[in-house]
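Ticket #243: bound-state structure for calcium ion.
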Amino acid sequence: MAAKYRILIVEDDRSISNMIKAVLETNNYIVLYAHNGTEAAFIAENHCPDLMLLDLGLPDTDGTELIKSVRQWSAMPIIVVSARTHESDKIAALDMGADDYVTKPFGTGELLARIRTALRHGGTFSSQNDIKQSGKYAVGGLVIDYDRYRVYIDGNDAKFTQNEFKIIAFLGRYAGKVMTYDAIIKSIWGPNANTDNQILRVNMANIRRKIEKCPAHPEYIFTEVGIGYRLADEDSFNEAHQK
Ligand code: CA
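RESOLUTION: The complex was predicted; output attached.
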């Protein structure tokens, strides 16, 4: 039998943590539990969980502070599970080093899918390792060829411009993870770039036209409204195509 993953739930609301715990245990995860930031930091340091599900509104601290402190010593995947729906909260958590963000209320299927993706990346970004080995990132009919600076869709050259290639190459390195507009813009146009999203949006519209059959129902690049973009990884692509 495969080794079980250990997941730390950081949540002060017992009804929510009990619900998540039941779902995780049914799906063969070992559950650790903390109801405030102090306990969470102690358990994270002493029991080294494989993943953390983190509520932001904790009685003794803000969850973003915990992300900051854990990131000083660990790359363990952190998924924020929060009732805060403000884009600025999501962006702050992701930029602080969270891997993903799930808004309450959420479906258990969605939570489990996000957990699987985050665990596969294991804080080290498997897609990045795949790219190092093969020089390519492939999902569905999409291939990003990092050696030739080309993108292929269903075997045909999608004829990307230089900036379009840079954008999809960046998303490909972090496939499955939401990248904020700011992070994408900085990676393409440098740290002093004007953080106006307009140029990025124009480029993204062109990218979608080149690779998506129907840009209104994307298969490859997903918009997290007000936050950024996520490139499909194998798991999310396969799930979308099973439906
Ligand atoms: Ca709370």
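RESOLUTION NOTES: The mean pLDDT is 88.
TICKET STATUS: resolved
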